[in-house]
Amino acid sequence: MYQDQNFDRGALLESAFRRLEANxxxxxxxxLLSESVGVRDLFAYGATKGRGDFAWLTENLQSAQESxxxxxxxxxxxxxxxxxxxxxxxRLDALRFFEVSNPELATDKKHRRFHxxxxxxxxxxxxxxxxxxxxxRNRDIDSLFHGYxxxxxxxxxxxxxxxxxxxxxxxxxxxxxxxxxxxxxxSSKVDPFDAITTDCLLAPDPPGPKISVIMTxxxxxxxxxxxxxxxxxxxxxxxLELIIVDxxxxxxxxxxxxxxxxxxxxxxxxxxxxxxxTYRARNFxxxxxxxxxxxGQDSDDWSHPDRLLTQVRYLQANPEAPGVTTSxxxxxxxLVRIQRGLNPLxxxxxxxxIPSSIADELxxxxxxxxxxxxxxxxxxECHTGATVTKLDEPLYLIRSTSESLSRSDFRPGWSHxxxxxxxxxVSYWHxxxxxxxxxxxxxxxxxxxxxxxxxxxxxxxxARHLDVVLAGDFRGSSGHLRSAAEQxxxxxxxxxxVGLLQFESIWSPSMEAxxxxxxxxxxxxxxxxxxxxxxDDGVIGIIVIKDxxxxxxxxxxxxxxxxRRLLVVASQAPxxxxxxxxxxxxxxVSRNVKLHFGVSPAWVAANESIQSMLTGMGVSECDLxxxxxxxxxxxxxxxxxxxxxxNTMPVLGRHSQGIASSWPEACGQRRxxxxxxxxxxxxxLGSLNFGPKQRLLEQNSETWVVFDExxxxxxxxYSSIDFFVYFQSAQWPGDHYRExxxxxxxxxVVILAPEFEPIFGDGAVYAEQVDVPSIIINYWSDWDDYRxxxxxxxxxxxxxxxxxxxxxxxxxxxxMPVSALKVGDxxxxxxxxx
Length: 834
Fold this sequence. Notes:
The chain is an alpha/beta fold and 834 residues long. Strand 3, helix 14 (222-233) and strand 4 form a beta-alpha-beta unit. Helix 6 (71-84) packs antiparallel against helix 7 and helix 8 runs antiparallel to helix 9. An eight-stranded mixed sheet has the order 5-4-3-6-9-8-10-7. A six-stranded parallel sheet has the order 15-14-13-16-17-18. A six-stranded parallel sheet has the order 21-20-19-22-23-24. Helices cover 36% and strands 15% of the residues.
């Protein structure tokens, strides 16, 4: 029957668009976060109202406009092109799309990002008059941040015919708002950023506590470096020391450092013998600091002369605050603040000022290349239980350059996967570590308390050799992720070298760079599993893609990883049995996998129904494994005592994925379609937020409770119910075996539709839905019979679903002799032979 279905890319785009139409922001976020170029077709499908893909739209924009367009989806597509900016034509395509879409969109907050981005692109292209005209017609964006768009477009550094005095008056508006002294430029012979100065007014006596300002440098450029130094020496708060830690610059930079040292006796220079990165250098500076407070300054930025005064007075007035940072304006070397997709104002991490006592408690920064300043602030907050305040005053100017280390790791809507992995690990560490583990010794630069991605390390380790890597979206909470965690554990228990590769799924409930699931992150934190990235140097025996959907709209590639074999697990069906809800095309996925990794994949299905669908949708028999993927579960960790009744009435439960087809068709139409026992205590793990079946919850709100999977431990949920009842749509071929196994392992009496009997045998009770109430009443009235069925359920998990079956399956995929299992250290067994 599957061969008769219209499973083509048009059908896929239609299905995906229908699912995303109500929450289109997810598609935008996904496109930017995943760097997927293919997902542009989805935006083009929406923009053309189903008539074409991205390639067609770019060639036929005028005719498409004449036939009618969805202008909001066209603006979304323009934004994705502009912010991805992968191809030389992307910016011009974005401008073409915006020229058509934006005149049709309201000039309000909802559509602000589109109008402002169009202005930013025009400014970049030097089309200043067009940019200014758009700003003046749009009061919403013209009012942003003191009118910076108009002012920057009229900057004398972009157009010499424009007025310096009008521009500088606008540039000073943020300072004047907070009664801060205005800036002016002292010279026209250097870059405007390097010429920034202000009138110097000293703070009144007494001088107050001493502040240690730590500045690190490496190959300092004279004017830029001395600008930063002057901005500290000209502080109105005079009781300070400026500790410059040079991170082993070559000898030719010695004169620049000497020039800084000669400017003021409050300057001291520390020179490190070997380069170890800015955060290791800051730790040396903290060791040398003698002040009551410690703060930082980057060697290419500028601090307002009232910065230290404002910060120290805040801390004196708020002794409960563990620290304080400032706001910062980012600008390029000509002081233009317009940057594509970015707001001009942000938090300034390096400006963090803390009491030296807190610095001593926590030690220092993680000695890594990037990202340690934000970690240090959050560690302070975790350690003290108090928030580090961010002042609204813009007391700092960040110089934005294309050479900045952070620029290669960040774009609007995107951060490098290594950065996301680092923050996931940091979040887990901060939450789970005890107070003493927050201390990071300043002098033990090579000792890191947590695993850190290679990209962020000072010294890049040699290429990784891993036997098995699981790839997929490991964020959130679900049975799919719990299964992945137990698969990883099963493989590492065999001594295999195992890794994880995170990809984003367009169907993820959140497009934020949220942390990985705790059960996954724990394995990474403990060093059991290595997290790797597409741009790492690594040799991989086999990559197992846990979810085909992550490769339907594939991430940008190709990957640098050297992969010997690749297996795609069809954990969910491509579509319902009637062809609806199409979520991926197996042949598209295979092609994208080959393009990304350079290896043609094999396929394995989660169950027989999905296996049949894959065959019908073109996966060849030689590429499709004949057996289904075995499960990996640790039943001993799910055991729950059930020696007696705990309630007067039985408690029923089931799992609910946010998919309508995972419930019987009648749900939402008949009140009793899934109400096995009248007035029963019914508990749902998952979500009911889908379609008309939300009526289930509305109709039964007094006796039903829905737990989000992030709110309750699954074992606790299953232990709270007596019966696990699961029926699904006849059109749903999906795999909920994991949740059924979890319920069985905890000793629930599981009631399923008859078609599940060949899978679970005597581990469950099988019935038509209409017979469920009598079955529950019979078991509830005969507790001995309940106990016997509960025991059968537990034995079923142990005997029918041994995790050794999964291990043997992977061993065969690795071409590893099964006799090698459990015979000592197999770490690197497979890849060592490559």
